Amino acid sequence: MKKIILHSDMNACYASIEAKLNPKLRGIPMAVAGDPSNRHGIILAKSQEAKEMGVKTGEAIWQAKAKCPNLTLVPPQYDQYLKHSKMARKIYYDYTNQVEPFGLDECFLDVTGSSHLFGSGEDIAMTIKERIKREMGITVSVGVSFCKIFAKLGSDMKKPDAVSLISEENFKDLVWPLGVRAMVGIGRATERKLKGIGIFTLGDLAKSQPDILKNLLGVNGIYLWQYANGLDIRKVHDRDFRDDIKTIGNSTTLRQDLVNDRQVKKVFKVLAFSVSKRLRKEGLEAYGVEVFVRDNSLYSYHYQKPIKLSSKASITLAQEAFDLFRQKYRWNLPVRALGLRAIRLAREGMGSQLDMFSDYKKYMKDESCDKALYEIREKYGKDSISFAGLRGDTKIPKDLNEIITLPTNHYNF
Fold first, then answer.
1. Does the predicted TM-score (pTM) go above 0.85?
2. Catalytic entry in 106, 285, 290, 320
């Protein structure tokens, strides 16, 4: 049976929600932006009016202001964005249980089995679009196709508030003339490699020899060739599907550069609290840590190491990360950003191989202490108990995101 896949994308999601919550923001050049005092001064989302003035997502506030001096800036409200994301998903579930989130503002839907109840894919897409506009006060663009990759392309073709159909009959006319960057998963580096061998459009990609693409890009070259030819056989996951969590981490750009080990250790302790919290909630332990460092010249470093005894304790993760940092980072420049990631995850209780050089008593003491800290913070709040050394200024922004979870990503090539 031919698949009917939708991809629904909330138009200028953050900006649209802000305009809904504050009608004074409607019809003016407006952008949601990070806090410059926390060195998060970039544009996160912009209104249509700001877009027409040349404002781009991801650019610095000063760059946006140079293009649009009357740009109104508002801080992000992530709790509201999550609330609206859940509201949209509730609408999607009225038509299918095969709903796969792709970020806060996007979802894939497989409505193949719903067509006998609600009409064609275009009919369902139009109904969803109008319901979200009426019930949520924002707009979406919906792509309709026979596979996921083209459904995503379809939602990008017409914005805002539109439905686009890419079928087996018309995809060569609609998709193949597009530049290769139009396909999700093809970034600047891949685009540069493709152009180096004369592939500029998705049509060029589709007509290329798979072996040549494999030599150029590895197995991902084969995937790209399949996608350009509409041979994307990936399923839309069921609403109850949970992908394996590969890593759990958190990172932050500091309000001020760090200049010594003592400051770095404090930051790792704070980051480790949030990583440990998620590990405990997921019933996972880490068999390794990875450290991310960005110096004040914006050059980034990634270091990783195994852990002798698997752990989910913030005390252990912070110490392992700090030891790795001290071993690898040379302090040629001050540190602008830090990250800590738990890697090589496994279900708790799997155990570790002991050796005669490990301080198992200290390990168990740290694990027990950290569990007590976690339980107190869960019951009385994250500020109820902490380490004395963290009472001073850690240079961490107040709006530090609690957690970042990194599942398997099927799109980054």
1. no
2. 106
